[in-house]
Amino acid sequence: MKEIIARCGFICSQCPAYRENIRDATDRRRVSETWNKYYGLRIHPNEIRCDGYLKPDSEKPERVTKECPIRDCVQQKNLENCAHCGQYPCSLLEKQLSNVEKVVEKHRDSASTDEYRRFLQPYNVRQLLNKIAHSVVKQPVADTATPLSPIVKLTREMTVAFIRVKGHYSQIPTAFGRLYTWIADRGYRPVGPAMAVYYTTSGQVPDDDLQWELRSEVAGMVAETAPDENGLGIRRVGTIQTAAMLHKGPYETVNKTYETLTRWIRQNGYEIVGPFEESYFNDLANTPNDELLTEIRFPIKKTS
Fold first, then answer.
1. pTM of the predicted protein model
2. Which of 87, 83, 104, 221 is nearest to 159 (CA)?
């Protein structure tokens, strides 16, 4: 099999969840159990199947990890992988590499040869990325105040837990806390980045009348439920064509990215057809402000 290297450097073709490496339910169960053993991941065997991270979103590929900020960042920069970036290795990639290296170091002597080859080696890729980085001319990275480039992006179908809120945006941290507590209390497993949908904005209506919704994707087969008395529920979200742009840096500077994205939409013959969305890829408590990544999306269609 031809070697397939993901945007972050993980070797898809060696990954035990890659579609060509999965033969039956027994393989899926083994991957689920062994990933839990080494990485603490709790993924149902039925979700163990991946078409790899190079397959375009437009082909609706199956992936174990539905959202990946590293992949999105590399694609926004139009690079082959992280090693081609002038900022390699950034703090986001470094965290991922270090986490894998800690697992490898802990289990290096106890893992069987087969488990090391299948479940540790495909993700222990610092040497591989360093080799690539030393052999390429890297693309310079713009100042962090400069927004990255807009793209047209199809969002995925997903099941989300949500909380619908009316009022000032200052309630967002508390509302996220209520959402994730509600998810945990029901035994659901949140996956991917936190998300928000803004139905109205400041300036359109008084701050006390703002309408917005916070979301988290949940794994597995979870039944839809109407919002309860606190605005919390489960729904299925369909695929949407969006104009998307990644903002890197403090949220206080995000307006420049919004201006760039809305101007790009107009200049490229699209119109906005729904409320805008944001995805938050970092842990705010543990990420420096200049490394924060926020994806902004507007539903769009071609102007007739």
1. 0.57
2. 221
